[in-house]
Amino acid sequence: MMNGKKLFLPCVLIVMINMAACVTGCAHTSNTDSRENVPNTGSIEVMPTGEADPALKNTVWAAIDGKDLALSFREKGNTVWMGGLGEVVYSKEGEKITFDLSALITIYNAITVDEYIVVQKTEVKEGIALLEKMIEAEGDAEKKKELEEGLQQLKSLLPMLENPDSEIREVFKKLFPLVKKMPTALEPYKTFEGTFNGNELTVERFPAYDAQSNTVTPTKVIYKKR
After folding, report:
1. Predicted confidence band of residue 222 (pLDDT cuts 50, 70, 90)
2. DSSP states of 188-217
3. Comparing 23-27, 75-79, 174-178, which segment has the lowest mean pLDDT?
4. Phi, psi for 180 (deg, rounded to 5)
5. Across-strand partners of 117?
6. DSSP 162
7. DSSP secondary structure string for all residues of 124-154
8. 100 pairs with which residues across the strands?
9. What pTM value is reported for the model?
10. What is the Cα 220 distance to its own chain's centre?
11. Which is nearest to 81 in space by CA: 42, 20, 125, 112?
12. 109 CB neighbour count, 10 Å cutoff
């Protein structure tokens, strides 16, 4: 499962591309779910704009068809952590879910190298928490082993991000021009829709971003509730 599929990875440290593609994303997230419902302005954290949907809050989803993606809906506030993107605002009306990348795009238009390092550290911690949930819910022994291997890989990244030395900082600086291209590429795809029917969630045009080519490929992704 942890096979470094670059198609779904917008902007992460090079070692993460190879080691943890299924759970790393782009925007600063919070594990505490203590955020207030305030507008998205001037922060590197995507903030909710409303309440969490009762049917979606505090749920975890995994993509099928071999795609290395996952979803984690927040318990408080209308945001969801989307593997391959990061923290995203959503709204739900009946079976239709609308995802909005506007806050994420705003953040990445203004982000600095130091803020980006903080973002990636937070994303790795987010990925660890999500994988731990998925491991606990997984009944298939082979899939659980793959998830456990991915968990160890993510944990091995934390020390270099907690206290980045000059070499790691230099890698981030070299990667940063690619990071700054991402918002422009995602802008035409900043809103997209999904269909929710209880235990399955289908996104017909997920904006799969390839950092190396700076292109977005709308891709169908089907998620199953874990």
Report:
1. very high
2. GGSEEEEEE-SSEEEEEEEEEEETTTTEEE
3. 23-27
4. -70, -15
5. none
6. H
7. HHHHHHHHHHHHHH---HHHHHHHHHHHHHH
8. 89, 191
9. 0.72
10. 17
11. 125
12. 12
Distance CA 51, CA 79 (A): 9
Place of tokens 């993107």: 85
Alpha-carbon span 89 to 174, nearest angstrom: 30
Tokens standing for residue 140:
């298939």
Q: Record the tokens describing residue 181, joined without a space.
A: 């291209």
For residue 77, give the DSSP letter.
S
Task: Give, in order, the Cα–Cα distances in Å from 131 to each of 46, 55, 60, 76.
Answer: 21, 21, 10, 20
The DSSP output letter for 72 is E
Q: What angle do CA 71, 184, 78 make, to 5 degrees?
A: 30
Summarised one tens digit per residue, pLDDT across range 31-64 is 444 433 333 434 578 899 999 999 999 998 988 8
CA distance 15 to 207: 23
DSSP letters, 24-66, are --SSB--SS---------S-SBPPPSSPPPTTTTT-EEEE-TT
Burial 46-56 (b: 16+ CB within 10 A, else e): bbbbeebbeeb
For residue 124, what are the CA distances in angstroms to 42, 54, 96, 97, 226? 23, 27, 30, 26, 20
Q: Enumerate residues 6+ apart whose C-beta is below 8 A from 31.
A: 125, 126, 129
Rounded to whole angstroms, how far apart are CA atoms 90 and 67?
A: 21
